[in-house]
Amino acid sequence: MLTVIGIGPGSEAMMTQEAVAALKAADIVVGYKTYTHLVKPLVGDKEIIKTGMCKEIERCQTAIELAEQGKNVAVVCSGDAGIYGMAGLILELVSQQKRNVEVRLVAGVTASTACAALLGAPLMHDFCHISLSDLLTPWEVIEKRVQAAAEADFVVCFYNPRSRGREAHLARAFALMAPWKPAETPVGVVKAAERKHEEKWLTTFGAMDFSRVDMRSLVIVGNQSTYIRDGLMITPRGYKL
Amino acid sequence: MLTVIGIGPGSEAMMTQEAVAALKAADIVVGYKTYTHLVKPLVGDKEIIKTGMCKEIERCQTAIELAEQGKNVAVVCSGDAGIYGMAGLILELVSQQKRNVEVRLVAGVTASTACAALLGAPLMHDFCHISLSDLLTPWEVIEKRVQAAAEADFVVCFYNPRSRGREAHLARAFALMAPWKPAETPVGVVKAAERKHEEKWLTTFGAMDFSRVDMRSLVIVGNQSTYIRDGLMITPRGYKL
């Protein structure tokens, strides 16, 4: 059995009960080292196989092989395993290689949702998730989505907004959105949500300081109705109050 | 204290540990009757205030008043409270009316994430949430977003896809997307996810049977790379396999 578990943003409190139960039932836990570290208190003395960044295929392959040998393997991902996580890769490999492994997916609280609750209620209306990493996606595809999202007035959540080697991506995305996002549009940033050294702040589209954003950050850009009041970022659902 | 709790799709297993703890700590639970019913086993003998559909403002107002009187009030929403839920309305009312109430938001697993895990891994690449209810949003705004999402090749999750009085909305949305979504594009539907009578099925954009979809359903339309294999809907993240 191979269980792919979304552990939520980082705190044990934000894990689902199913995720906790699945972790406790596992023989072996496999994951990126930051995530295996986060679940360490729940995992106890179980075997942990941790790998570094950009080792996704090897990591999933190892997990599949162990599961095929009869182990109860848990693959841990931050947030939800089905959103920029390992769920898809596991299913692709199992299916392509015709592996005899039962895969179970355990959904989790994804970063946008967790960060929104820390900022107020910015996702109360239609929104998009866009990853600004072009490791696996051509930059032109990302550009097109950023522009379309801004033009159609979606709230936009940027995953992987800025990292080493991709310092300029977020600024480029903002430049692409500028024709449709007025300078006063609220923007919320959460760094390391629900983890040690969590930080969050509100700013505006025009005053955005890109240098404060890193790869552990999530950036939420409001729509035309989003406002900031009492230190909270709120996108109205549309009720007449 | 007023805690706005996303209870996830419906099963207790999919609630976060924080949500369970917050529910147990509450004096009074307020919510739409379907949702208060879902959490009944956790709530025990506590006072429950349940209201019908379209009573959102009254429901939130009641919760705010009880909290201001010193009660520990939990407002329950399905999925995540910050996604088409009550978090925004509560914050708007508290702030507008300058209420002396501390509001705490507890994020939950939203429908798209939960349904994706039931269908495979359809949300592994950039995606949008669009609600097809025009009760609170002009239909032209919805149309614009549907077209933009299709044109930029987002995976699209439709919330409130079809309900009494809005039987044609989903078909209209599909017609708007048709220029960019080939007939063979995979579509996944989950009805009553994680609840009694849960149903799910995979189909294609061209073969979609709208009549099977109701207001408890979530519809996920794939992007250009999404495929169906071994009964699973998978959107590749882009790894070279």
From TrEMBL, chains A, B:
Entry keywords, A to Z: Cobalamin biosynthesis, Methyltransferase, S-adenosyl-L-methionine, Transferase
Ranges of residues in domain Tetrapyrrole methylase: 1-207
Gene Ontology biological-process entries: cobalamin biosynthetic process; methylation
Metabolic or biological pathway, per its Swiss-Prot or TrEMBL entry: Cofactor biosynthesis; adenosylcobalamin biosynthesis
Pfam families listed in its UniProt record: TP_methylase (PF00590)
Gene Ontology MF term list: methyltransferase activity
Matching InterPro entries: 4pyrrol_Mease, 4pyrrol_Methylase_sf, 4pyrrole_Mease_sub1, 4pyrrole_Mease_sub2, Cbl_synth_CobJ/CibH_dom, Precorrin_MeTrfase
PANTHER family: COBALT-FACTOR III C(17)-METHYLTRANSFERASE-RELATED
Name listed for the protein in its UniProt record: Cobalt-precorrin-3B C(17)-methyltransferase
Organism annotation: Xenorhabdus khoisanae
